[in-house]
Records
---
Amino acid sequence: MAPRLSILFLGLIATSAQALDQLDIPTAMQWYAPLRDRPVIRVGLAWGAEQSAEVREQDATLGRQGGFAAVTGRAWRGERSEVWLRTTGVDVQLDGDAQLPVTGALPDRLQDLRLGGFWRMSLKEGAVVGLDAEVSSPSDKPYSGSDVLAVSATLFSRIPTTGRDGWVLVLRYDTTNTLLPGVPLPGIGYQWMRPGLMATVGLPFTNIKWQPIDDWSFSANYFPIDAGKVSVAWSPGTAVDAPPGERGAWTVSGNLAVSYENWLLADRKDTDERLTFRTVRTFLAGEWSPFPGNRIRLAVGRILLREVYETDSWRNRADNRIRVDPSWYSSVELQLGW
């Protein structure tokens, strides 16, 4: 059976809850996991607050708070295949009086209700194939019209080669993607799995997780445009030769991340434009997972750079962009499984 891929890599190419950047709970970690009696219902809750900070070149401030609630459940399971469904509610409130130079004031609130799921099948040769799809409306007025609807879908496959290595293939379509929205984007990578090392290198993504000694690990990943993370983690009781995804009950990590969110404002004049939050942050996170499928995670960090812009292309953002001074933030995340 195909081993689990890194949660960090999957979180970048997955359809996951969009709220305060780092509060995502990726569901695609299940795409490649072996069929087994894991929790069939999962509930995820998250909340975070970002300190208000001065907007550069404006007499204004900007802060945010909010989070999401998500429910994922297995709807059907056969001998080699299964179907999962999920729903996620997102709510983000903006504080302050910041204004974009061209389009003006930012909305007071952003919300979304995401409906989706995935199907996957394990083939006799050990390969895995599947489809993940979702409909959402990330907007200040969700589901108020067709121009605030978003659709995403990902075809995925893992083809084993020798040992635990294998090819990873994806075809991603996302109408709100920062890189070429609405254009199907192929991805291909090769994954090496050795004791203490798991590396997936390809186009357009890269992910490496290295554990040189017991309890300590280093990970790094990147997915265009402007999505990446490096992390150093200490997890007592995690051996170098532990199976992928298995670790001790406690984990403490130091992280540096670049991320972005895309939203569709209801009253925008150009339907190709997206409101984007681009964030560079560093944070310290602590996580307790008493048993598989359940965890609580606390994070405290510093937003080093926050850019907000509304444009039809990430390459054309200078005329309608604001930058916010550094600020502090914190978040709490709870995941339960039955």
---
Amino acid sequence: MLCEQLGQEPDPAKMPLEPSDFPEEVQVAFFMFSLLPDRWEGMSGTYMGKDWTPLEYAFKIYKVYNEQEVFYFMKMYENIIVAHKHEKGERAKKAEARKTPASGGNYTHNVKG
């Protein structure tokens, strides 16, 4: 639709991938990954990745047969997500630092004693 509005031909090389574009094991990994709860560091709000505790239970419920391969793809995906969220957080911190004036200027206090 966007290409139609811009009067351009769609370029398949620039189109985002759909989950169905991936092999079955990767699709299962995406699904299983979405079931796991996120972990956040409390004080800084840093994304720490997924809580892997319920994974074995989820594998049993959904009868995942190639657990080792699916787990491998899940960890690869988690690494990408963690790196992306870290980079996004760093950009936000730098943007915030540019907005606030730097403190630590020279102040003179008149103290009479």
---
Amino acid sequence: MRKMNRDEKFILGAEFYIFFLLGLYTLMVGALVPMIREEYGISYELSGFLISANSIGMIAMNLIASYTAILFGLKRAYMAQHALVIVGLIAVTISGNPVVLLLGMAFIGFSRGSSANYSNQIVNDITGSDSRLMNLAGVFFAAGACIAPFLMLFCSDTMGNWKFASYGVSAAAVVGILLTYFMKIGKEGFGAVETRRGGYDFFKKKKYWVTVVALFCYSGMEISIIGWTVTFYIEVQNTTARFASLMASLLWGALLAGRVVCSLIANRMSKAKFIFMLSVGVAVFMALFVSGLGLPLQVAATIGLGLFMSGVYSTILADAGPIFSEYKLAFGFFFMLSGLGPVIMPSVVGVISERSGVSVGIRSLVVISVALLVISIINIRVDKTLRDH
């Protein structure tokens, strides 16, 4: 890693805080939904649409974040995205109107998409792509995600109103705005150098489409599991809200531990084979998660899911990395196409849950885990074909 000056160290420290904040309000979405449903009496179907609205907002900002940074300047655009999450969190506390709730969740998604885009770019630039510090930023994200359910539970049980959690995270986002204001970024500091070529030839590559479909399946399943875990434990397993929140945090704790393990062993085999190995584990533990064979097995399956899910996302991105390096448009289209998974699947789970029950809705994710496993096998064959040629 290159030596950083004082301004760069400030930016890095601020980014760690922002990653923590991003993890906090990312997982709050799943914890907010049952609270919102109880507060306003909304349906399971609308609950699924709320999660999807969040994903739609995230995808939209992932696509246009670069353009807004060019149009308004990186610092202004980055500060604005912190303001968006404040608008979204406050919106869901003031009205049970479906339009207001959907817009609120979309605004939170807007902030998630742009924050992930800007934060990853800045940390990558400032550390010279140092993997240790990039992973450390991910640890801060996971730490925020682990705390989110307990924050919701504390505000609901101890303070008597879950809405205090939204107010508290909104205040934390104000701190994010202030930290961003004092960063020397954009014209003052960092800007990405475009060395890749244009064109759409990446659409002709089988590897591109296989990894797109793999991430479509995985990311849709991940957001659905995160978004519906609390509801599943409360309404299917008949546990308390406290226990359900503990399970959500346990899932994120396993994801965090899994990321550390994956960073140590990922290079011992090809990326395609590693994705296959992880996909086998995801399919097995997803089946156990919905098996109904008892709470102890359910808890073990939650841990297993977290451990095996932890490395799938980043390994798929790494597997498609050479294509991103070659074509400047490949990255944006990749996330737009694969990002449809988090938009569609939570709503599908919500619709099925409304008509057939939450248990059946969650079980539908087993089909997606099997599809991911099949795609991972195809990915290995595509790699073999590329090597042979």
